[in-house]
């Protein structure tokens, strides 16, 4: 038997020297996230906005070339399913039922209206061709108000208002990606076929929702027949990541598969098919997963932003930010007032907050990253999207707390 010599250990030592590149990055991100979470307890700043700012500073200081590559697939396939599942799993149906019409209106007609307004204004004010202006609209239509809902909770704002933010974001992530897929195909073809667009939307969105509901009830049935915490937690992870992959494999919206499955498991499977011990473990597990994934995704958003490219065309970026805000305002102020007779009235004060709190984040960044290498016209759309994302996270995210206090100051924050 050969006795290992000191020279035999050199390749192993060399391998160990290269291992910390990825592992060390995760460790650093967890340390940063923990430190920021402690610090923001004493500051009126959203946790996610501070993380994004740190990401921008890191990207500028070290240079993007010296950092691990950030891809759209990393966000869409690794980070987003877990974040969506956690949000859907804790979304309570009793509150969602009070907001259901408003949520569906904003996540469907609202996404379409936002896309159309950005398309029209982007064509007129930025000189984009119609297909590329529509593509920009589809990319900035999905909202990501994680920072906003965390602030609302800290400020003791109404649960129904937080539910409205969260539920709209969950569903419009899926519908926004569907619209983006259709718009991207149109930029290649150069034309829009309305009938085909409607059919594609129904197939992708409707099919994803139906598949997610079926998956959620199927896993609920399985968990009702077993009492093993580890297995049941594993099945929730299967619903999140397996559901996303299943949606993509079957040609429907993977995001909506995850969202529908999560809502079913959180409101049906959790109380009816899980023991109290398993329910508590699932809450703790997914709460921590969301903390880790949010830490990673918001730092990566900051790192991914091509700041020199944004600074090279400040006027266009400012116009793009204004266009996105106008489109969001149009969707909220035009779609929500008619809901008052349906007993799902959204107070005007809440509508103001919905407009300013319509942050863009992970989904918009992932869609922008997916356009890399397609040509100059796509690069212009990518830069505008990054500008909207960065402005919404930093400007709107940081100022949302004071605005919420001002808007709701004269009324009871616990009621409309």
Summarize the structure.
With 416 residues, this protein is mainly alpha-helical. It is built from 18 helices and no strands.
Considering the chains and any ligands shown, give keywords for the structure.
mainly alpha; single chain; disordered N terminus
Mean pLDDT: 85
In this structure, how is the largest beta sheet organized? Answer: none
Would you tell me which CATH topology applies? Na+/H+ antiporter like fold
Q: How many beta-strand runs?
A: 0
Q: CATH top level?
A: Mainly Alpha
Strand content range: under 5%
N- and C-termini, Cα separation: 79 Å
Work out the radius of gyration.
Answer: 22 Å
Helix run count = 18
Structural class: mainly alpha
Known CATH architecture: Up-down Bundle
Q: Give unreliable regions as ranges.
A: 3-20
Helix percent reads: over 70%
Provide the number of structural domains.
1
Report the order of strands and helices. Answer: HHHHHHHHHHHHHHHHHH
3D architecture notes:
This protein has 416 residues and is mostly helical. 78% of the residues lie in helices and 0% in strands. The longest helix has 32 residues. It starts with 8 loop residues before the first helix and ends in a 9-residue tail after the last helix. The relative contact order is 0.16.
